[in-house]
């Protein structure tokens, strides 16, 4: 279970536009990895994204992209795995599901208690 400090790390990591775009595109499959001709025996993960492929979509150097990815990894919203000479990243579905559950609970509590806070006639029907 995520504690408050971990949740704040996630929000901080996603508050940067570049990190948010990297995460969004990795999560939605916005990038595809090229095959590695130098190491043909390395199996490509079809649902993961190569860091080098991500860097191609931004006007930043690979070290800058790597620094952003490091923050996303430290926030535990992506996983990183090295295979051969490529680094693959994937969304950490467990963490994302837990954050989604937090928002679901917040909305449910808001809806159930709306009239207490806002004297909302619509909510009282």
Structure description:
- Strand 2 and strand 3 form a beta hairpin.
- Helices cover 54% and strands 11% of the residues.
- It is elongated, with a radius of gyration of 19 Å.
- It has a three-stranded antiparallel β-sheet with strand order 1-3-2.
- Helix 1 packs antiparallel against helix 4 and helix 2 packs across helix 4.
- It has 125 residues and is mainly α.
- The mean pLDDT is 83.
Topology:
Blueprint: H1 4-14, H2 17-28, E1 49-50, H3 51-55, H4 62-74, E2 78-83, E3 86-91, H5 93-118
Antiparallel strand pairs: 1-3, 2-3
Summarize this entry quickly.
It contains five helices and three strands.
Radius of gyration: 19 Å
Low-confidence stretches: none
Percent helix, as a range, is: 40-55%
- State the helix count: 5
Q: How would you characterize the largest beta sheet?
A: 3 strands, antiparallel
Give the overall pLDDT as a whole number.
83
Q: Which structural class matches the secondary elements?
A: mainly alpha
Counted beta strands:
3
> What's the helix-strand series?
HHEHHEEH
Q: Tell the overall outline.
A: elongated
Portion in strands = 5-15%
């Amino acid at each position: 279970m995520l504690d408050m400090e971990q949740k704040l790390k996630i929000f901080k990591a996603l508050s940067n536009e570049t990190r948010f775009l990297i995460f969004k595109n990795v999560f939605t499959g916005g990038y595809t990895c090229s095959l590695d001709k130098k190491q043909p025996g390395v199996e490509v993960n079809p649902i993961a994204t190569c860091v080098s492929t991500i860097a191609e979509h931004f006007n930043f150097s690979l070290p800058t992209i790597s620094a952003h990815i490091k923050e996303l990894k430290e926030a535990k919203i992506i996983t990183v795995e090295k295979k051969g000479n490529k680094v693959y990243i994937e969304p950490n579905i467990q963490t994302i599901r837990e954050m989604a559950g937090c928002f679901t609970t917040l909305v449910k509590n808001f809806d159930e208690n709306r009239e207490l806070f806002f004297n909302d006639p619509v909510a009282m029907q």
